[in-house]
Amino acid sequence: MHARVPADPAPGGPAVVLVHGLVVSSRYMTPTLSRLAPRRRVYAPDLPGFGRSEKPPRALDVPGLARALDGWMEATGLGSAVLVGNSMGCQVIAELALRRPARVERAVLQGPTMDPEARTLPRQAARLALDCLREPPSLILVELLDLLAAGPLRSLRTFFHAADDRIEKKLPALAAPVLVVHGERDPIVPERWAREACGLLPDGRFVVVRGAAHAVNYNAPSALARHVEAFIGARP
């Protein structure tokens, strides 16, 4: 797996791994990576099928993506880390935390999908269209470039895998402390569902980023980085 890593990684402290969502790649996480890099060892991998990583013959489901992330962490020498995900990346992190709890020191789930009330393609497409109107124009270009790199068919199949995944059944079993971050103007993950997801966690905390849409990692990276830093420093 390909990963973006700062040229001059900061020493010490827990490593932070940024996990992107559906269709996009590590490029989508670079604004947050750059904010965390001065103080943290931070990595932003491309999940298999996306960005510069290998393209498996078939789109991987959420457990398959979690296994790939686990294998990459092992190969990179990361016994454990703080994992920060956006959108479908939250589903991958939840699966990894369930299957390999020692890997996940803490988790930040930013805009966790999928809202059980909107698992169909038409509903998600409608929410995505509204979100595009609320995101920076530069993000739309990033999403289009990453969609072309992944391919429409792989992206569509990955969507259906994500829609079949039931994150709400996994959250109650997660042992690690988890911070749920919600963008106030996120139409893809409404606050109702974000709070419900947080309430399912044994050790869940909730924060709202005012004025932010779905991609807080891109449209409000400084705010997200501050919340990640505070969460890492918080007492268990």
From TrEMBL:
This is Alpha/beta fold hydrolase. Residues 16-226 form the AB hydrolase-1 domain. One of its GO terms (molecular function) is hydrolase activity. Keywords: Hydrolase. It comes from the Bacteria.
